[in-house]
Amino acid sequence: MSQRVLTGITTSGTPHLGNYVGAIRPAVAASRESGVESFLFLADYHALIKCDDPARVSRSRLQIAATWLACGLDPDRVTFYRQSDIPEIAELNWLLTCVTAKGLMNRAHAYKAAMDANHAQGQEEDAGVTMGLFCYPVLMAADILMFNAHRVPVGRDQVQHIEMARDIASRFNHLYGNGRELFVLPQAQIDEAVAVLPGLDGRKMSKSYDNTLPLFEGGARALRETVARIVTDSRLPGEPKTVEGSALVMIHDSVATPDERAAFHADLRGWLGWGEAKARTTALLEAHLAPMRQRYENLMARPDSIEDALIVGARKARALATPFLEELRQAVGLGRLSGAAAGRGASAGGSSADSAAGTSERLAVFKQYREGDGRFYFKLSAHDGRVLLQSEGFEGGREAGQWVKRVRSEGLPAAQQAPVALGEGVDWATVDKALQRLMAHDAQQAEAAPRAQAT
Ligand code: TRP
Question: What is the pTM of this model?
């Protein structure tokens, strides 16, 4: 089965070199591997935890989306979306909140750091701590578990959050899985060489320390001026320098080839002065970033094209999230009453793809599921459970999901092209009627909530 790789960036600032090296570059590289399905998103619900300035959140979303695309992300190959376009994530957040121990959250670094800062300033422990901050790791777990990601490329500081996501997932599986792994247990993936890039002052490069090197904003000039501010020791040109632990060297190395690194280190250990070392670092960064910066500027000038890409991404993401959440709702006892009455409770793998939870119309439902043979299937069932269409098995859940999406949005012609068989005693006219009703229902839903379109 293909590996799912997922990562997000909080949209509360302007992308910097640390984001690029720690998250964007490895994620783009992974998205090009075969056998990998990538999910990349703008963590804009997370942004509200750190930032209550709407203009900044909104500008940051645009900048970060443009950055991903400029850095080579191909939205046709990956699922590229905004967290806040997937309401299922907020709902899953609640299901997970209810199985998460408060004690686990007490131990989260971000919360502990806030408490420590309060202690240091002689303030009450929880001063300024919102429930958003306290529960931050649960929302992050929802991001990851929603799409059953196997791998999560992150900086080292986020590893604890991935471990918490595993804890929460195991607990949920144990409570509600009925012997089944509802959630995949995710693994953090760290690029050992450059996991945490130091900032200008040697601490982790982070917008909260105000020590970042902007990736594109400000152009070549800002890049040069910022490199000039990187803190070095006071050894003079001609004196041998210590390469280890130097922020400048690590920043240089983050975009250098192995040969360039070796030459740079050798020269510093020999004669190279810090001033010249900075000039070399600037030139190297500029060569690496300039072509991407050009694309970034073109994208920033056309926000509509970015919005379009994100809307397509949200549709792709929801084609998976909607049926999966339905399955989870059923697992915790929030499934359809009609299903329970018919004794069709939480059958293994059964999941309804109808996103309009709570409606009691007699609509047909798409179900996506995986069989014991490891393949992915879908079927369309009438409201009474009669099978109208049964698909062949697919290699990946994604392919099944894409067919469901197509049939659901295009109706009969797509159904007739899909690798499906008619249910016993069913004719195409019946399928047509069921699909027409489903499509009319979806259109109505879309009108009611333009962002909350059904798959
Ligand atoms: N917390 C991450 C950060 O600040 C961003 C993030 C949110 C994330 N949700 C995620 C990263 C899920 C990986 C997976 O860097």
Answer: 0.71
